[in-house]
Amino acid sequence: MSSVISRIGMLLIGLSLAIAWSPLPVAAKTYQFTYSNFFPPSHVQSQLADEWCREVEKRTQGRVKIAYYPGGTLTSAAQSYDGVVTQRSDIALSSMGYSRGRFPLMASIMLPSGIPNGPFATAVYNEINDKFSPEELSDTQILYLFAHGPGLLHTRTKLIDNLDDLKGLKIRGAGAVADIIKALGASPVTMPMPELYQALQKGVAEGAFYPEEVSKGWKMAEVVDYTIANYQIGYSYGFCVAMNKEKWQQLPADLQEIIREISLEWTIKHGKAWDSSDYEGIRYSLQKGNTMIGIPTEEAKRWKEAVRPVYKRYIEKCEDLGLPGQEVFDYLMQSIKQYKNGKFESKYLDE
After folding, report:
1. Would residue 15 count as lying in a domain?
2. pLDDT tens-digit map of 281-328
3. How far apart (Å, rounded) are the C-alpha atoms in residues 52 and 259?
4. Enclosing domain of residue 255
5. Is residue 12 part of a domain?
6. How far apart are CA 73 and CA 110, in angstroms?
7. Does position 109 have pLDDT exceeding 60, yes or no?
């Protein structure tokens, strides 16, 4: 009996020593990043970005934590993309139209092509990126892209119902949209969205091109009187959520894959949000007493004809840089036609 107890005692001692000498489990490494967004906290595009941060933290089980800075508090709208490259922020939501000339091929989305809505604009923008793999986006890790619904003309006090009324008017349009404004006979005034409200209020700008969501999301309906709904020349702005490449490469493959999966989901969410916020913007503008007018078919054709040189300039600029501008333009116009005929398919569209 005593020998049995002795053997048990020896086993327990051995087990204790084995446990004592076993290496302690290594805690999974955590990664902390900053995210800069110029949209104000109340804007749906800012809210979605904040939700993306929380979803990343949740699905990575806390291994990735993101400090979110909305409203341009970390980097301004114009600095957001460069801020990622230079590590002023690790991640940023950037409007690619605010860096004119930097994204020549991806500027296709800003052409007055008759973009129908936000979900389509978002889908075709991602498809262009996938299909043509532009070098201009290679200095960051693009997490996802999206684009807003059709940009329309809005004016302070002057009702515009024909092309001649636009001559000489000071109209805000950032990036390549300035070319549209020139083609229509107006004078472009370039500034990022956060500066537009005061510019309209003070008469620095007499009008602006932007999607309807801006009427409520940026309260622009408070400082304009008219919306000219010429959808035939509707354009879009492209946005990217970009991450510093070095910071991205620090992440192990499993975390990168989780972030890719979430980003695809959020691509679709952002596209749909543009549509719903466009409708809210229209309602808000009308509640403010503003007037929304359509353009007669024949007059709309004049506007469409007036902006045709913008297509040519885009193609020429790209091809001068050795980029497939004609191919991208043809793909965009073909995709719009397919969408209107119910034949456009994309993984970036909600089923």
Report:
1. no
2. 999 999 999 999 999 999 999 999 999 999 999 999 999 999 999 999
3. 9
4. 31-340
5. no
6. 27
7. yes
